[in-house]
């Protein structure tokens, strides 16, 4: 919650950051998320230290509250969780298949020579 308050204060205090934020929100969630580092760096310059993920969450939360009609505000956290769960499952399956193939090679004596 501290990150959200810090980002909100930054946006209130700076017309330039507010304009940049609005532009990012109007472009979409991906654009806003890809610029999170800039917001984090600005906050650090102001003595506020947050993880990148905290700033990203804050930016998206504020977008949903303040600019609900923008594409960035349409970011659905539940959909993102499902997307990540599917991606992790695919990666785990791929990793397991590679590990099994390597074990099979070693069993046949085809491993590293």
Describe, in short, the structure shown:
With 113 residues, this protein is an all-alpha fold.
Describe the structure.
The protein is elongated. The model has no long low-confidence stretch (mean pLDDT 89). The chain is 77% helix and 0% strand. It has 2 domains: 2-74, no CATH class; 76-113. The protein has helices at residues 2-13, 15-27, 29-34, 36-45, 52-66, 77-107. The longest helix is centred in the last third of the chain and has 31 residues, at 77-107. Helix 1 packs across helix 2 (15-27) and helix 4 (36-45) crosses helix 5. The chain is mainly alpha-helical.
Number of domains: 2
In terms of DSSP E residues, the strand content is: under 5%
**Would you identify the regions where 5 or more consecutive residues have pLDDT less than 50?**
none
- Secondary structure: helix percent: over 70%
Query: What is the rounded Rg?
Result: 21 Å
What's the total number of strands? 0
Number of helices: 6
Report the mean per-residue pLDDT as an integer.
89
Major sheet description = none
């Amino acid at each position: 919650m501290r990150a959200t308050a810090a980002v909100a204060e930054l946006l209130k205090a700076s017309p330039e950051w507010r304009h940049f934020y609005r532009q990012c929100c109007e472009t979409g969630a991906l654009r806003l998320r890809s610029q999170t580092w800039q917001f984090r760096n600005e906050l650090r310059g102001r003595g506020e230290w947050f993880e990148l993920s905290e700033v990203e969450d804050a930016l998206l939360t504020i977008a949903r509250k303040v600019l609900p009609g923008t594409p960035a505000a349409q970011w659905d956290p539940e959909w993102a969780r499902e997307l990540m769960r599917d991606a992790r499952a695919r990666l785990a399956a791929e990793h397991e298949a590679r590990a099994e193939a390597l074990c099979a090679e070693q069993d046949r004596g085809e491993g590293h020579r």
